[in-house]
Amino acid sequence: MISANHLYLLCLLYALNSCSPSTERSQPLADTGEESTSLKIDTIEIIQMEFRPAVLNVQKGDTVVFVNKDIVAHDATEISNKSWTSGTMPVGAIWKFVPTADVDYYCSIHEVMKGKIIVK
Amino acid sequence: MKTTNTFLTRVICVIAWFMLVSSSVWAQSNTPLSDAEVASVAVVANQIDIDYAAIAKEKSTNKAILHFAETMASDHKAVIDQAVALAKKLNVTPKDNAVSQKLHSDADKTKAALSAKSGKAFDKAYIDNEVAYHKAVINAVETLLIPDASNAELKQLLQNVLPTLKAHLAHAEKVQKEFK
Questions:
Q1: Which of B164, B166, B171 sits opposite A72 (nearest CB)?
Q2: What confidence score (pLDDT) does residue A37 get?
Q3: Which residues of chain A lie closer than 8 angstroms to B79, CB-CB?
Q4: Across the interface, do B166 and A70 touch by the CB < 8 Å criterion?
């Protein structure tokens, strides 16, 4: 009888314990919900010697992720002043950055590959 | 008039060279190539351009030529690595054949011709050859290697290589304009 009560109490405590974290987690998410939806991650795939999409529209503060899905190494480099570059990205590499203004970029290894990011 | 004749002579030479490369080298086989032979041709064709790049890196001081040669060396090595890895996966040993043998013998002649030049004449000869060679290789991949490849993964690898070859051609043509 005692052990049955103990078992009941243990189950009750376990149930309460497993419920409480989700309640606690939901509060901060509700507080920061506006912030988490305003910033996005946009992906540019490097594949078949192209940046896809070639023109990407982003919101200020969004993160742009370059993913090299091609069969050779590439990079992403700002064209006019080379003010930023991903450096050489081997096959499968990922590089991310947050653009602050409109930018034209290219692959400095394969100069015919070009892309543009428009920051709204 | 003299300028027109010179230009026409150059055009005729380029067309003749291209026809020579594209017809005599690649049209060696009347029967379809096996996958082992396709793999061999793919490896040899890539290695030849790496060899040309090595000559350019040794002989040229031109920034655009050196950059292009560096790209050819690394890209074609990457393609060879993938072709070899796929052949290993498929348990296929690249097999020497009439096309790969002719590629080798013609490349030896081209390498000798390139090695005999220097300075701007070398740079022009190298980039002219790169334009012609990539045109010929693209044509061969599209009309010979892809149709002959029977394994789906080998066929896919060849299809994946085409955009790289076409970008190389566009890059070579861009550099070539500096030497006209």
A1: B164
A2: 55
A3: 71-72
A4: no
Produce one character per residue of B150-173: b if its CB has 16 or more CB atoms within 10 Å, e if not.
eeeebbebbeebbbbbbbbbbbbe
Q: What is the mean pLDDT of residues A13-21?
A: 36
Q: Please report residues of B whose CB lies closer than 8 A to that of A50.
A: 163
Residues facing residue A46 across a β-bridge: A51, A68
- The three-class DSSP label of residue A33 is helix
* Amino acid at site A24: E
Q: Inter-chain contact B174–A111, Cβ cutoff 8 Å?
A: yes
The answer to whether the Cα torsion of B171, B177, B178, B180 is positive or negative is positive
- ipTM at complex level: 0.80
Give the pLDDT confidence of B137-149 residue by residue, as tens digits.
999 999 999 999 9
Tell me, what DSSP letter sits at residue B91? T
Among residues of chain A, what percentage have pLDDT more than 70? 68
Q: In sequence order, which residues have a C-beta less than 8 Å from that of residue A38 and are 6 or more positions away?
A: A59, A61
Distance from CA of B137 to the nearest CA of A (A): 17
Which of B78, B171, B174 comes nearest A72 by C-beta? B78
- Split at pLDDT 50, 70, 90, the class of B50 is very high
For residue range B152-161, what is the model confidence (pLDDT) as tens digits? 999 999 999 9
Q: What is the pTM of this model?
A: 0.78
Facing B170 at nearest CB: one of A72, A73, A112: A112
| pLDDT at B10 (0 to 100) | 52
Give the number of other CB atoms < 10 A from CB of residue B131.
19
